[in-house]
Fold:
Amino acid sequence: MAIDLAQFHDAFFEESFEALDSMEAALLKLNLGAPEPELIGTIFRVAHSIKGGSATFGFSEVASFTHTCETLLDELRGNRMQVTRHVTDLLLKSVDVMREMLRSVQRKEPIDAQRVADLQFDLELAIAQKNQPAAAPAPAPVVAAAPAPAAVEAAKPRVAHRWRISFRPYPQLFVHGNDPLRMIRELSEIGELSVKLDGNALPSLEALEPESCYLAWDLTLDTDAAREVVNGVFDWAEGDCDLQITEEEVPVQAAAPVAATAAPASEAKPSNVVNIADAKPAEAPKEAPHPAAAAAVHEGPKAGATDGGSIRVSTEKIDELMNTVGELVITQSMLTQLGSKFTGHAAEQLRSGLATLERNVRELQESVMRVRMLPISFVFSRFPRMVRDLSGRLGKHVELKMTGDQTELDKTVMEKIGDPLVHLVRNSVDHGIEMPDVRSAAGKPQTGTVFLNAYHKGGAITVEVGDDGGGLNKDRILKKARERNLIGPNETLSDDQIYELIFMAGFSTAEQTTDISGRGVGMDVVRRNIKELGGTIEVRSEYGKGSRFIITLPLTLAIVDGQSVAVGTETYIVPLITIIESLQLKQGMVNRVAGSGEVFWFRDGYVPVVRLHEVFGVEPRTTQLHEGLIMVVEGEGRKVGLFVDDLLGQQQVVIKSLETNFRRVDGVSGATILGDGAVALILDVPGLIRVATQRLAA
Amino acid sequence: MTNQVAAQIDAAAAGSNQMLTFTLGEETYGVDILRVQEIRGWQPVTRIPQAPSHVLGVLNLRGSIVPIVDLRMRFNLQHAEYTPLTVIIVLTVQSATGRRDFGVVVDGVSDVIDVAASDVKPAPEFGAHVSTEFIEGLASVSGRMVMLLDIDQLIGADVTGVALSPAA
Structure:
């Protein structure tokens, strides 16, 4: 039965990329000198599972490279090697290379073999040089191409005891619920374990009783644990086995087992029940590659246990669910309307039932909505690495502080906010934070701080990116703006207006453009991206003290807070975020420009009137401006007064695409279904303003 | 149920199709019944700005937003009042961008008929003033002429928005 492995490729890639992200995060958290075993365990597990997966799928280059990584990690895990900056750098590079390789394999493109081989060589070199002072030049006894690294002798950390355990279960062992595998696993957790399987009692297949135990083991355990601890492992098997535990002298110098090609091989062999290969550490020859598979035994199940809490669901399925729930909400509100018309003794019961239904449906809707939400740490997680790399390249000391990374927002919003945030963080490190000497001179600590903060605020999410660097230099911005004739020579601007200038296309005040930032493409793109999501960005800055960019985003793109307005018999939804103010014009407040365009004075300028009924070609209740209402809306920095018949009410509406069955319509961003089942169009305010201006121009 | 399926298979094997016929004024049209999603009574639609005049607007069809086309207007027939007897047939078209649903407003639904492939005759050329590109063929069923519509041709351009007047 041939299984087509290709069907699992996608899942493998997806999981591997995620695993690499977590490996990267763990690497960045790693303390030099005093690494946390937990973190190294996490990192090791990632390398191990990618190696296993790629070997299974036949991605041999990936498997070979990952194997080298794993070897290095195993050394770190066994405390046989120091975690130095050089080593973490190498491992971070390895993460990049693995990502690249997997991506190439995924796209069926050739792998950059040179880059891989170079790094692999570096890794092997690092393994070979372990415990040697970093400065000493390497008399590298390394064969770069060979997947099996040269085994290097090293003094092993001394352990207190070496226990020889002869474990010979009786056939009925399984009947009493004992699992030899579990015991061996437990032993391997308390020390360095080697296992020798004695399968002599194994009968022929015909005679084999599946419920009897025929196997016996000879175990050698190097550990600090006392005899009672080792005995304790076998407590439950008492009376079901012959158990002999004897102490042996610990050899003064044992060769460090080095993971090698034998490890994957042993996993592949089905006969090898426990994945622990035969080994005799006492007489371990230097060159003999010892499988590090004992580690794999207890790592495997742990890794599995952490994944148990979630399942993978395609977003399509969730969207379907959202649609169905949306329908349910509409049906429910129709029923509620209907229910209010009933009279009689059963009506009260009906209404209370409908009220329960309403509550349940709302909860259901919220739960489904939450399924699409992910913590913003998915975006934030890339920043520690980025800040580290950038500050290293720029010679600055930068500390990144992140708070609120568990704040949740919709997956679609998340996907689109990543790039703008990267840009802002990069700017903060590059332009914001000063060089260490400048900071000292200004009486600030040498290490600058870049902070990222996310929190929920009134149905929206706010993300702040800030730094304690130099802040925006108003004079320089003004000078630059004058040079470029963006403002007149004698024009005076408020602080907000000055900061607004940095969002103009092609505007950069950096004295020198670097390869990191400063070419003047950017802030305008940042703002555009955020606007496309229906969000806003503002700047707070104090010269010499730092700047802060505050981004406000809607929690989800599936729902919009809208104001319903009536024009004739039609209902339209105007997104609340675009509305500045609604007002009624009195006669005589409207001026005509060149005989046709209507404008009125609003706050600090003239705003043109856009008659929605004219743009959309519907029959209004009134064409007299003072009889209807004016809604001042803003889009792409332009304000217009939208003339409508009446305001109806505010509500959250589920956005549905017109394009599914029809096509894009200018000035309309989508449609929604109202409580009575009718369809209402949602206005795309910037688009509407464009359409209206074209009409006026025509 | 099984009999129906069997009948359909028989019909298909014999080179015939089941057609849903409907009327517009004096004329009878037919569409492939496999394209029909549902038939529903007339209800007011939500107008769409800048749409061609025969696209009346959109309706909520169990959660999806479906455009509604008035076939009388599409065929330049005299406009008729919408009454409770006016019917919307919801059809599926295959366009370049995938499957789309839309509704057509017709005067009334008549019947489901079997049309053998051999009974379908090509539509004659009428010259420039009568457009026949969306008539798949003409069939004669019990003495009546039925115009078989190629709905992909008929609606495709409307819903994908190729040949349309600009926004202004």
Notes: Chain B is about 15% helix and 45% strand. Residues 162-168 of chain B have pLDDT under 50 and may be disordered. Chain B touches chain A at residues 44-51, 55, 57-60, 62-67, 100-102, 159-161, 167-168 (CB under 8 Å).
